[in-house]
Write a structure and sequence with these properties.
alpha/beta, Quinone Oxidoreductase, Chain A, domain 1, Rossmann fold, six-stranded parallel sheet, binds nicotinamide-adenine-dinucleotide, binds ligand 572, binds zinc ion
């Protein structure tokens, strides 16, 4: 075990630095984890570029990263579920466990959740972190640490599909082909969807969607492309917006069959002008998504069994020493880049 703990610390807008941090000591119910791989999420890039997301303001130096996998190097006094040497996926949000939301299983809605790399909580882009043992999931040998990191964005896709009731035979529209749109596609496929169409204005992203299993793709900028997709499908049972774009959510409502569901994953502007009368009178339900709950075991099973090829979404890799370059790549608006992975040890 190294005695160093180098961490990617956000000090202010466009000011990311590798700092040396003390190696933390696990509490009784925690484990100390040597981090192996951390995916860069759009929220990490947003905090770096703007120093905040809505009311969440970075007011003190904060370690970035919340999509991570690593190896347990020490266990707290009361931990029996894990041992030194276990490789784990880290679920980044640890809720209070006591409120009504926690007690009824909707712990993603807990107001007391501590989520990695959401201010003021430090993230996981570091040599070592401590984490609640029951929010760490032991990996089978066949699942690597990069795939473990990918269980996090896959969880968002699984939760979106669950919210929309995606199942065997569903016809699904995904608007937005970034990492979250593509994990929603993978999750829909794994849940048994028959037909998944994906839209995005960026051709390179549509090409990636086709490679990982989209049945059809369309550029929303070209004529009536989304309407034509809807006609071909006979109306989508479930549409999942993963863009936050007003026009995409509008398209999603119009493309969904009467009685179907639109799942709002993408978060863009605070207020959107939408065809709300159409949504109401055709009973197209609009459903919110806030992260996920109870998804990690399912995500791990999907990946371990080969039903969700999350590795196919990893387009770029950098060592921690080149973390600035990694963020430059993640922030560049390139259709070729989907998920940038930072290799820590
Ligand atoms: P991303 O920016 O990489 O992907 C968004 C994609 O939407 C881009 O490829 C963009 O070209 C595309 N897009 C833009 N306008 C479009 C349109 N009119 N029609 C179709 N596609 C369009 O982001 P991501 O990391 O994939 O995340 C997607 C969204 O999900 C973001 O808004 C993010 O904040 C949000 N998110 C929400 C939750 C949640 O809990 N609700 C969790 C994770 C991410
Ligand atoms: O993987 C979790 C995740 N959640 C995102 C974005 C990216 N990754 N969300 C969008 C921002 N919200 S938030 O409530 N917030 C900054 C805490 O606006 C959380 C969900
Ligand atoms: Zn994220």
């Amino acid at each position: 075990m190294s005695t160093e703990n180098r961490a990617a610390v956000l000090h202010g807008v466009d000011h990311l630095r590798l700092d040396e941090r003390p190696i933390p000591t696990p509490a009784a119910d925690e484990v100390l984890i040597a981090i192996g791989a951390v995916g860069i999420c759009g929220s990490d890039v947003h905090y770096l570029k703007h120093g905040r997301i809505g009311p969440f303001v970075v007011e003190a130096p904060m370690v970035l990263g919340h999509e991570s996998g690593g190896t347990v190097v020490e266990v707290g006094a009361s931990v029996t579920s894990l041992k030194e040497g276990d490789r784990v996926a880290i679920e980044p949000g640890v809720p209070c466990r006591r409120c009504t939301f926690c007690k009824t299983g909707r712990y993603n809605l807990c107001a007391g959740v501590r989520f990695l790399a959401t201010p003021p909580i430090d993230g996981s882009m570091a040599g070592y972190i401590v984490h609640a043992a029951d929010f760490c999931y032991r990996l089978p040998d066949a699942v690597g640490l990069e795939e473990a990191a990918m269980l996090e964005p896959l969880s968002v896709g699984i939760h979106a599909c669950r919210r929309g009731g995606v199942g065997v035979g569903s016809k699904v529209l995904v608007t937005g082909a970034g990492p979250i749109g593509l994990t929603s596609l993978l999750a829909a496929r794994a849940a048994g969807a028959d037909y998944v169409a994906v839209t995005d204005p960026v051709e390179g992203r549509l090409a990636h969607a086709s490679r990982v299993g989209a049945n059809a793709t369309a550029n929303p900028g070209s004529g009536d492309a989304v309407q034509e997709l809807a006609q071909e499908a006979g109306g989508f049972d479930v549409s999942i917006d993963c863009s936050g774009a007003e026009s995409a959510v509008s398209d999603a409502i119009s493309a969904t069959r009467s009685g179907g569901k639109v799942v709002l994953v993408g978060l863009g502007a605070d207020r959107l002008t939408l065809p709300i009368v159409e949504s109401a009178t055709r009973e197209v339900d609009l459903l919110g998504v806030f992260r996920y709950a109870n998804t990690y075991p399912t995500a791990l099973s999907m990946v371990a069994s080969g039903r969700a090829d999350v590795a196919a979404l990893i387009t770029d890799r950098y060592p921690l020493t080149e973390v600035q370059e990694a963020f430059d790549m993640a922030g560049a608006a390139s259709g070729e880049t989907i998920k940038v992975m930072v290799e820590v040890s």
